[in-house]
Design brief:
The complex is a heterodimer. Chain A has three helices and five strands. Chain A is an alpha+beta fold. In chain A, strands 2-1-5-3-4 form a five-stranded mixed β-sheet, covered by helices on one side. Chain A is globular and about 35 Å long. By secondary structure, chain B is mainly β. Chain B contains no helices and 31 strands. In chain B, strands 4, 5, 6, 7 and 8 form a five-stranded antiparallel β-sheet that branches. The radius of gyration of chain B is 19 Å and the shape is globular. Classes of the chains: A alpha+beta, B mainly beta. At the A-B interface, α1 of A face β6 of B.
Chain lengths: 99, 371
């Protein structure tokens, strides 16, 4: 198991009752692995950043790591080494969408 | 005099206003779920401290929150609203088939017979039920798969199921209303459905005898007279005395029969309230005067209630779930405006005063009498 540091956006922190950064244990340090681990650790977040059944990313949600936008990458994509080894964070964030 | 609690859903969170006893000041708490759009929140008629709320955002979608202490603390419940079986299509705005897509919950209706059962009306139009206080939801798919459903077309606000009426004396009978499909009745607990739109006159339809396609805005029922329903349609106020088999217009002398909410006095099944809005183009009160209209004759004859309501430069709309009556005698009436004011009357509408101002756009108001 690998410990991954995850930064959540404001509304998801309040929904889960957690601080800005959480740590989740993943079997495989992939995008899908970390998203699933967040949902497993905090079931109240299911459906709030990706769909329940299809696991499709919600339209205004994004995942960033190491200054890269991983939002469009397949779920099996491995996380950058700095995230997988705990030196940097995986960011789930809401896109700037407004006006 | 009992305690009265008013649950207020707004575009940026929920608020709870409480008046401990008659003559005491209102206390307002909130926002709960700050930044979330709360289309509706409602308490159980069995245990008023059991309250459900339906916050959503464009980023995170729908969540359901549940309180066991009257809205002071909340627990996140289930938010998986999955259409059952084949998704099928309804008509899109351009007339082409469009697959059903869940967007949000418009209305929550706790059961009057089981405290853990709650119904949810959603967009795209469908009826869901939870029997475990909101942890899991199942669709009553007989409505969405009705033989007319392929012809349903969304109104300006979307294809939303916004009204659910349950009666404790006959749990098998359910009424719902959908914009812009119409009103429907089930006599078997939501398994099968019958459109009940005979007598509705909708000028936007080429066929005035159309079974569906009517833009019903809200329905109301007095529980002691379950076959009588009152309707605020896009235009026209109507009533039925045979559970929706036939409707007749009772707009009478209203200054405008366009509006959104309609309510029945719990003390008198022939006293009803609407809020006239100038038109579907303007969506604000006629002449900039906010007036609640009351009929003590079940419609046709209306009086305009103005004492304490703004009679100049009032341009807030009152949305379909933003008027509610408590169970006092005379009843208290609570009206929330899209410019963020909740007005209250504690004498059946004769006198009004704001209980809170400057809130975000008010989407819903639900009053509770707490024994």
């Amino acid at each position: 198991m690998t410990a991954i540091r995850v930064v959540l956006p404001h509304h998801l922190r309040t929904l889960a009752g957690v601080d800005r950064e959480i740590t989740v244990e993943v079997e495989e340090p992939t995008i899908g692995g970390v998203l699933g681990a967040v949902e497993h650790a905090h079931p109240e977040l299911r459906g709030t950043f990706r769909d329940h059944g299809t696991l499709k990313r919600r339209p205004f949600m994004r995942w960033f790591a190491c200054e890269e936008d991983l939002s469009h990458e397949p779920l099996e994509t491995r996380l950058p080494a700095d995230v997988a080894e705990g030196r940097d964070v995986f960011r789930i964030l809401g896109a700037i969408a407004g006006g | 005099m009992t305690q009265v609690r008013v649950l207020i859903g707004t575009a940026k969170g929920a608020f709870v206003a409480t008046r401990p006893a008659a003559g005491t000041a209102w206390q307002v708490e909130g926002p709960h779920f700050g930044g979330w759009e709360v289309y509706h929140l409602k308490g159980s008629p069995i245990d008023p401290d059991r309250v459900w709320a339906a916050p959503s955002t464009g980023w995170h979608g729908q969540v359901i929150q549940h309180s066991k202490d009257g809205g002071r603390t909340w627990e996140v419940m289930g938010n998986e609203f999955a259409y059952r079986g084949e998704t099928r299509t309804h008509q899109w705005y351009d007339g082409t088939p469009h697959p059903w897509e869940f967007a949000r919950v418009w209305h929550l209706e706790p059961s009057p017979v089981d405290v853990d059962t709650i119904y949810a009306g959603v967009e795209d139009a469908a009826l869901f039920r939870s029997t475990d206080a909101g942890r899991t939801w199942s669709e009553l798919e007989g409505l969405r798969t009705h033989s007319t459903a392929g012809t349903w077309q969304p109104g300006a606000g979307g294809l939303c199921l916004h009204t659910i009426i349950l009666n404790p004396d006959n749990p098998d009978r359910i009424f719902v209303a959908i914009s812009a499909a119409g009103a429907f009745r089930s006599d078997d607990g939501g398994i099968t459905w019958l459109p009940i739109n005979t007598g509705l006159d909708s000028g936007h339809l080429p066929d005035q005898d159309a079974t569906v396609g009517h833009c019903v805005h809200n329905l109301a029922q007095h529980p002691d007279r379950p076959d009588t329903l009152f309707m605020q349609k896009h235009w026209d106020v109507l009533r039925t005395d045979d559970a929706g088999d036939h409707w007749r217009e009772v707009s009478g002398n209203l200054p405008s029969d366009f509006g959104f909410p309609i309510e029945v006095d719990p003390n008198d099944p022939e006293t009803i309230f609407v809020v006239p809005i100038l038109s579907d183009s303007e969506h604000y009160p006629p002449d900039g005067k906010m007036r609640v209209a009351r009929s003590r004759t079940g419609g046709d004859q209306w009086e305009l209630l103005t004492e304490g309501l703004p009679q100049a430069h009032a341009y807030g709309n009152i949305l379909r779930d933003a008027m509610s009556l408590d169970a006092e005698d005379p009843c208290g009436i609570y009206v929330g405006t899209t410019d963020g004011v909740v007005y209250a009357s504690d004498d059946g509408g004769d006198h009004w005063a704001p209980i809170v101002e400057h809130l975000p756009r008010i989407l819903s108001v639900e009053a509770q009498s707490i024994p």
